[in-house]
Amino acid sequence: MNRLDWTSAPAGGPLHGDLAVPGDKSVSHRAVMLASLAEGVSRIRGFLEGGDTHATARIFAQMGVRIEAPAPHERIVHGVGMHGLRAPGDSLDCGNSGTAMRLLGGLMSGQAFDSTLAGDASLSKRPMRRVTEPLLRMGAAITTAEGGTPPLRIRGGQALRGIDYATPVASAQVKSALLLAGLYAAGRTAVTEPRPTRDYTERMLAAFGWPVVSAPGRAALTGGHTLHACDVAVPADFSSAAFFIVAATLVPGSELVLRAVGLNPRRTGLLHVLRAMGADIGEESRREAGGEPVADLVVRHAPLHGIEVPVEHVADMIDEFPILFVAAACAEGVTTIRGAGELRVKESDRIAVMATGLRALGARIEETPDGAAIEGGRLQGGSVDAHGDHRCAMAFAVAGAVAGAVSIRDCANVATSFPDFADLAQAAGLRVSAAD
Ligand code: S3P
């Protein structure tokens, strides 16, 4: 991917507007996967046009699934059934996407043919034993590189058996990998988590007609059923909305409306935390879309104060810490984060990347192995490095709105989850643009 740097200048005035952020990344991945394995034709609306979800769609096309794109954000998937995928000629490229690789690790373990899952430089450093260990216990033949990192090499044709697994990490990707392998396993596959994580796999399997028993922190299914084609309406991604929620909160005089944002309770930890810090975030027209709660969010500027982030919200806001770091760096007093060691193995080490960048803008931040103490104050301009992490790049862009001008290195991967971020940000009054 080409190198892209941004500059983000202070907002000229209040942010205003009515924005629709793109479709949910987690839901878009799962919709393509399940629709591909279903009997019949499924239509996906609100599909995220991003690098990560394109990688997943490309992988299924490589295995013989016909996927049409009649319009942007829409896909028609001609399902091939549980045993209809074809052996790919080449390795399967998951790009930057941990979700694609971990979920497919489970799914491909149940196929009759061999496969290899590879990724880009960032994904190639991320831990995969969290999925390969339990998959091996299910009878999968799956290996990682030395050190437990990609590529994943999977030998097909194994007889999988269900297990009852208590995962040590709270990870929807681990849970989902096992459930997807469990579709092909004899007997019952059950996963218990230390804290509940996003439940889209369970919900979507049920929508495609597969019996699943689930409760927060626990999910179980048995192998051998059939998936039936289903239309999926993808809600707007809360994690993409989060950048605008914080931007409108920080820039004086702002009022932004964010339309039809997905408010699955396993995703909205940031709302609780920002409100506890003093944010003014209203919810209007709460409704259901595609089986998920959605609402229009109305965000008005409000001064923030530091808090101790309750550990029980960490899993429900795991993707929102980069932007929370920015909010905390602009709040009055100290914000402490604990129990968030997972941030060190995301697309980058998000604790280190955000702490280093915000320090360069004048913030005082103490890192701990599983969090940070962030002392709020006034940010100033400077240069930061997003280290190719999409969420860190967007978080720094928001910081630029309230600091002096910020130059941000290595932003190209924003295209993995939110290709139109800079355009939408400009429409709202932020001044983010490609650096010369
Ligand atoms: C995701 C789960 C989370 C999240 C990621 C998407 C998913 O990862 O960070 O962006 O779609 O299941 P973990 O399972 O590693 O927590």
Characterise the protein shown here.
By secondary structure, this protein is α+β, with helices and mostly antiparallel strands. It has helices at residues 25-37, 51-62, 98-109, 129-137, 172-182, 200-207, 238-250, 269-276, 321-329, 350-360, 390-402, 421-428; strands at residues 6-9, 16-19, 41-45, 66-68, 74-78, 92-93, 115-118, 141-143, 152-155, 164-166, 188-192, 212-215, 218-222, 232-233, 255-262, 280-289, 292-300, 334-337, 364-368, 371-375, 382-385, 406-409, 431-434. The longest helix has 13 residues, at 25-37. The relative contact order is 0.15. The protein binds shikimate-3-phosphate (S3P). The site of shikimate-3-phosphate has 10 residues, from helix 5.
Give a summary of the structure in a few sentences.
The chain is α+β, with helices and mostly antiparallel strands and 436 residues long. It contains twelve helices and 23 strands. The longest helix has 13 residues, at 25-37.
Write the layout of secondary structure elements.
Blueprint: E1 6-9, E2 16-19, H1 25-37, E3 41-45, H2 51-62, E4 66-68, E5 74-78, E6 92-93, H3 98-109, E7 115-118, H4 129-137, E8 141-143, E9 152-155, E10 164-166, H5 172-182, E11 188-192, H6 200-207, E12 212-215, E13 218-222, E14 232-233, H7 238-250, E15 255-262, H8 269-276, E16 280-289, E17 292-300, H9 321-329, E18 334-337, H10 350-360, E19 364-368, E20 371-375, E21 382-385, H11 390-402, E22 406-409, H12 421-428, E23 431-434
Parallel strand pairs: 2-15, 3-14, 6-7, 10-11, 21-22
Antiparallel strand pairs: 1-22, 1-23, 3-5, 4-5, 7-9, 8-9, 11-13, 12-13, 15-17, 16-17, 18-20, 19-20
The structure holds shikimate-3-phosphate.
Shikimate-3-phosphate binds next to helix 5.
